[in-house]
Amino acid sequence: METSYTLRKSPSRMAETPHKIIQCIYCGKRHEKLKEKCPAFGKQCKGCGKANHFINQCRASLHQQRKPAVQAVYKETADSEEYEDILGLTLEPAFQICALKKSTSKFSSALFATMLIDQQAVRFQMDCGADCNVLPARMVKDQSKILPCDKILRMYNKSTLTPVGICKLKIRNPCNQKLYQAEFVVIDSELCHPILGSRAIQAMDLISVQHQNILTVEQDSKQSDSAMWGWSTINKEYADIFQGVGCLEGKLKLEVDALVQPVRLPKRKVPVSLLKPLQEELASLEKQGIITPVERSTDWISSMVIVKKPSGKLRICIDPKPLNKALKRSHYPLPTLDDILPDLARARIFSVCDVKSGFWHIELEEDSSYLTTFSTPFGRYRWVRMPMGISPAPEVFQRKLNHALEGLPGIRVIADDILIVGEGETDVEAIKDHDQKLRKLLDRCRERQLKLNPEKFQLRKTEVPYIGHLLSAQGLQADPSKVKAITEMPRPTDVKGVQRFLGMVNYLSRFCENISDAGEPLRQLTQKDAVWEWTEVQEGAFQQIKSKISCAPVLKYYNPEEPLELQCDASERGLGAALMQSKQPLAFASRALTETEQGYAQIEKELLAVLFGMEKFHQFTFGQTVAVQSDHKPLESIMKKPLLKAPRRLQRMMLRLQMYDACIRYCPGKSLAVADTLSRAYLDEGSVEGSVEHQIETVNMLQYLPISNRRLDAIQKSTDKDKTLQAVKHIVLRGWPHAKELVPLEASPFYHIRDELSVQDGVLFKGERVVIPSELRSDIMSRIHSSHFGVEGCLRRARESVYWPGMNAQLKEYIDQCDICRSFDTKQQKETLMPHEIPTRPWEKIGTDLFTFHGHEYLITVDYDSNFWEIDQIQDTRSTTVIRKLKAHFARYGIPDTVCSDNGPQFISMEFKEFSMNWDFDHITSSPGYPQSNGKVESAVKTAKRLLQKAVSSGNDPYLALLDHRNTPTQGLECSPAQRLMGRRTKSLLPMRGSLLMKDHGMNDRHQILCTKQRALQAAQYNRGAKDLRPLNVGEQVWVQPPINQGKEWRKACLRAPAGIRSYEVVTESGQVLRRNRRHLRGTGRYRPQIRTQSSNQEEYNTDETNQPSIANTPEEDQEEPHCEISDTERLGDDTNVLREQPQGYRNTQTRSGRSILKPAYLNDYVD
């Protein structure tokens, strides 16, 4: 049976019903509301020993049994009836106050009230600490009333919750039938229950505090003037210095080392969900004058890094590592505590404040501002004010701040802390002196536009921590927080804990002679057969050692002339740090890891320990170079890499470290005994608001992944089933061995990227890229290549979001095997030049080809040695006609050793083959569809066409033009084609001495030398962008590029046999046999049985070739044409059995489909 109460406000109502029956909270029984009627009045509790209540109602016993699951309203444990009067608790059956379900007491600290929403009773919990009303989404009948909102709820345990939205509903109090309209934050959670916040509770008169019954303390009248000028007055009078962004006098010029090469980093992709908040934050910074857009080109462009604050807003930073390598630092000496101690002799009252957004107070010169340019999705911006992270920032800020506050009495500045001291013989005098100095400081801040941080203002303290010490009227004292990690260190619970503690004692024994002797009782516990028993002897030794460690001579006083060292270590559940100089400790610190932090990867824990130490000892480390010692070697390499290559959680830590000059170096764990002991015997303290983990725990790597929840769930499940990734995850969380040989075989492919690996929600990450399990890699590759982009495009896309060992090679192989991509491939790159051998005499090697000009057919014959060519007009292109013209030339100049041609039907016919055998010369054909292999002739065709075209257009005799061409010296060879062929010039229409027409017998030797040099130069120039393709193997599956006039789609084929250097015979899927140059074939590395070919009379080698191949790579007319490659051609005679015989003239043929092709009737009158 629940007991009903109501909370009322007015004490007058209580006076009207003095004898009302209540359920007494002191005895547990029902009686009149008079203390004389309570049987517990005057009695002593057997549980806590206090008076006026029984043990069954004792709050102390209840608190020991369990902790309240929600925020308790009753914080005090008053034992008199005054407690009831303050809360104004009266009996009335309207609202219910119920105990928690698990409570065994009749009374609970959880307050509940039943209200009506749409005639439906809803039981609300009344939470005096809640700032808003909360309602589960299931209780909102009309979902359309829910409006979106950007609020984030912070729970009592510091966790955060994102609501669905907000809605306004009408609720009715069933007691007085009053109707209220309240705004609720809607939460989509089954575990959430309705909550009424403090404002609603007060507005509905559900609970009140009787202020008239609360004892107040009157202040001394002598201090009333100072009390009136308190924080509220200061904040009101000087509100302008606590708002906005300040600006100190003078602009900063950044000095750059000219020897460092500028770096332009590309812009990074930003998750779509952050684009709008990012744009808003950029606009806000631009409006405040912190940044401004950049329109002109800049030498330096840094990467932008965005950090999401716990409030949901973004912080924009830059990755300054490349820029810091070029910036010169101005080393400004910082004042020390010893410098200001003489001024604190009569100090009694102290205040400490610091500057708000200190670095933004310093304006950059325009040229220096362009050095800080950074790229965003919305364009480039530059910092108008000094950004956080650049190396000169701490010294520059310290110098500017000292200059702004110089001359103020009683004001001291060390690092970024401003100290105000009040001096006097009494507190009253000191407060008066302090307030005068504080007012002068605030006036100076207003004058110099210096903005202070109101949240960190410590006003009128008799004792303040400052630079690692406590300042008070009694003098300078050591700050207990420096040694708290030692003085409050929990005692060891096992032998290993004792061994770690003694290791630290042994390390510190060099600074205290008797400290080792004090540890003898502890050493007895570490002996081999010793029984674990922690007695008073061990406890005394343990406390004695801690006392010795936490004071001189073990604890050293800070010396600003000596370098600082910071030992850091992280265990599974704690962090430890020790600040040292000359190996002697200055201060100790440790803390427990939160539940979230315990799930961090080991590298994240280790860097968190570094950040914890640097920020814990901020008074010492700020503005100083600190040598950080860590036993986690990957920290060295990750700190040298660009910020964006690190996982997001490490990025936040690294950003916070940017304000310090920390150099992390690896040290073996045995040399870090102090930090190791502190990290394992840590203080069980939670973090405070605004500390590291509040900004780091909120990092959710999965939040910005552009994948669905279903896909994410599949990755998580596959990762759990992947043995390799499970092994890697275990090592990442526990820490990597120092040598690769100690890493399990399955995890060794990840060793080289160990410093970039992290784990979150069961998913393994490399930086911001998801490590894909093996069973999903094929599916991921198909998704990456779904649009059939090229290799580089797919690799760029993959490198943004996914990773696995060997991903690049596997993805390339996957794309190489894509039939669609291969069929629409572009042409392959050119191979290196394989020039013809330089002939030893004229007319040793010739080339021939046919071309058409103004409707007439022509035969051109070129000498490879002299570049002398003949043109013959022919009536048809039959073999007999071509042979007859060639015989005429051979009779005039002699029979050559080699004749080169393309694969036209007139050159591969039986007649031409018999002609080559009867006249005793070798016939070489070029690769079909590759005229470059017969480039000498193709170049001559182009020159001949141009010569004929100009002669026809000008009306000149083409034979005179041909004569002039033969007598024109070739560039680089000092002689004309006629001289190289005949050894003399030929007479032309130009006047010429007779001696010039005589034979020159030394011409051939000079020509050979010049020609060799020219070809070497041509080959070197051609080979700049060329690379040889790998040889293909018989049986390999290949893709064949079609000729220019037959489309762009490549076809599958199988390589049958080589047909010379860089020339191959292939069989298509239809059984067609083709001969192609290597450049027209793309290998796959896969093999299959050769396709059965058609009958030999249907094998086809040049069915896709035309009689007039295209001309390419033609030099100027007055230059020697390059002798292009022909070594990929095939010599006739040896392989005639694979060539299709071409009949003389026309012959009836049959296609593969069986269709007959007959000779046209109008050709019947023609004879061969």
Automatic annotation (TrEMBL):
PANTHER family according to UniProt: CCHC-TYPE DOMAIN-CONTAINING PROTEIN, PROTEIN CBG26694
SUPFAM superfamilies from the xrefs? Answer: DNA/RNA polymerases (SSF56672), Ribonuclease H-like (SSF53098)
Tell me the Gene Ontology biological-process terms attached to this UniProt entry.
Answer: DNA integration
Q: Which InterPro entries match?
A: DNA/RNA_pol_sf, Integrase_cat-core, Integrase_H2C2, Retrovirus_Pol_polyprotein, Rev_trsase/Diguanyl_cyclase, RNaseH-like_sf, RNaseH_sf, RT_dom
Question: Where does the record place Basic and acidic residues bias?
Answer: 1121-1138
Top-tier EC class: hydrolase
The record's listing under Pfam families reads:
Integrase_H2C2, RT_RNaseH_2, rve, RVT_1
Q: What is this protein called?
A: Gypsy retrotransposon integrase-like protein 1
